[in-house]
## 1
Amino acid sequence: MNLLVVGGGGREHAIIQKLKENPTVETIYALPGNGGIAQDAVCVPSIGAKDIESIVDFAKSHAIDFAVVAPDDPLALGCVDRLHEAGIPCFGPEAKAARIEASKVFSKNLMKKYGIPTARYEVFNDPARALAYLKNASFPIVVKADGLALGKGVLIPQNLQEAEAAVKSIMEDKTFGDSGNEIVIEEFLTGPEVSVLAFTDGTAIVPMVSSMDHKRAGDGDTGPNTGGMGTVAPNPCYTPEAAAECMERIFLPTLAAMRAEGCSFKGCLYFGLMLTSDGPKVIEYNCRFGDPETQVVLPLLKTDLLTIMQAVENETLGDLPVEWHDGSAACVILASGGYPGSYEKGKELSIPEDLPGHVTVYHAGDKALDGKLVTSGGRVLGVTATGDTLEAALKDAYAATERIHFEGKYLRHDIGQRALRALEG
Ligand code: AMP
Ligand code: GLY
């Protein structure tokens, strides 16, 4: 089989490595891919993930048997719809289902209509009304741009002054472009955060191993928000009781709500959850695999990934047993110094060839230049190790990070510490 994967980050590298385990796979094309992914797939750097016409033309002219659309932008732009029209089976939701991530107003209204637990909220399309509402609000409060904003459209002002600045920045200065035409202002919730990615064909749902992201740039959860500086799986805060409650009160009702709205969700649905004293609540939905959650979840998957993705597309997921390895995985992101602010690119990577078998380096932001790999993005590599325990996985992931070099290499040194403390109870 010939496969096509849309995207070019660490998440896509993890998906591609897992797809390659299927013996029927001949060629995997990555559009655009990156320097490191080129070791595992045929990359096409000239076709970007948002270039829907070129992706569809490429799929038609390269006898693609199955396509995986991984990032949010092409999903929201209807890449899966267009591939389906061209007769190409795909993994990923169509555009109207991708709204569950692409519009926070859509997802919040969905949760309210169907009684799915989430933070209380109000929607505003007029900055004057939003500013008036804030006068009587309590702080901290959460201000979210409606649309996709590269994961940066959420602000948590601590007082009225900061909140007014947030509304002005999103709605008047358009810091996140048209994403900020509408905003959601919602209640600030507290509790451990858990990411649960789930395979679903619209009716059946198979939650993957839970995970924990570390979104802030600095140790001790300080500094600006990033795309994610590291992950661990499973998340020790997510007990079997919490999982059962989420299934009953959140996962199944979400699928039923999407079906009832005429936009059944097929693909990977990502539940960003907060375990509050009042039970689990949805912080956000993503219409795709998380990055870097995928880099710890897929290494623990035992069942063949392509088989699962085909069952999702064929709506036969309910008939397929999906199995997981015991143990844990940890991923530490190596970023360019300065990220998530400005940073230099073009630094040569040095990665040893004799890393242990249970350690994998996923390439996120690099490119080939004169036969070498050089940095080309903020998050450069994700170093994942698996182990019998979380402690062992973390130790081996961190040991590998010390053997990988590039100028300006930046990493957090406390990935997994919160999870270890939760394990100690
Ligand atoms: P998002 O971009 O939606 O993932 O949000 C980024 C981060 O903001 C989340 O991971 C949470 O830590 C935080 N956040 C979002 N909504 C809330 C909320 N209602 N209460 C507390 N924290 C929140
Ligand atoms: N790591 C969070 C996300 O993929 O949105």
Note: The chain has a mean pLDDT of 96.
## 2
Amino acid sequence: MQIIREINALRRAVQAIRGAGETIALVPTMGALHAGHMALVAEGKERARRVVASIFVNPAQFGPNEDLSRYPRREAEDAAMLEEGGCDLLWAPDVVAMYPDGHATRIRVAGVSQPLEGASRPGHFDGVATVVAKLLNQVQPNLALFGEKDFQQLAVIRAMVRDLDLPVEIVAVPTQRDADGLALSSRNAYLSTGQRLAARALPRALVEAALAMRGGTAVEAALAEGRAALSKDGFDIDYLAFCDPATLQPLEALDRPGRLLVAAKLGGTRLIDNIAVEPA
Ligand code: PAF
């Protein structure tokens, strides 16, 4: 697997792949890879001749009081996992390569980026949209793969690709979970042993709220029960909401497919998760 850190070298590598008539799948990541990322690589390999992964811990998507400095960085292990998973090229620019002096352009996807994560983390999705647009322009993939774990991020990226007519297919890959249901996340590494056990309550609250809604409990009552259960289990809840999967606007009834989304803190660690809910 080639590791490239400089934009001109990346351009040459991409041109060589394109010149050979081969398709490219892009797996954008911030590193600290786990089985969730490797599922994206595996899906990319199924769908394209070449898989390019990127590792870039994007300062633009972290707020001033967030975990940028302590975000796990372990490029050597990540590169070994990617190579083992059959990735062809790793694009690993540093901050200066990604945002050279004078970089002044920001992408903002109004609407879908504003509720939920957008309300709790102002500017977060501007940073995500900007870096993903840059990664798509840099790598020029036929398709790019994103996990459903970051469901609102996926919706923001789909909206950006649509609005800017970017010639790329966005592929969503289902959330990978541990045996007890907790969604895989690089931030799970922050949890103590006790917190890791307690964290099982997060996916459980989603499943129970979905079952209640499908069983006829009103949406708001099911959400209230879910919030109460999470508080009892020691979570500091940011939101538990039932939303339209494309716009992320709240839905008041389960009269069409929707998405249950949650963000809550356990100790200092903020976890997010989501599941689909279909009418019974
Ligand atoms: O999901 C992530 O890891 C990041 O938000 C992404 C898409 C790589 C952009 O930095």
Note: The CA atoms of residues 15 and 139 lie 10 Å apart.
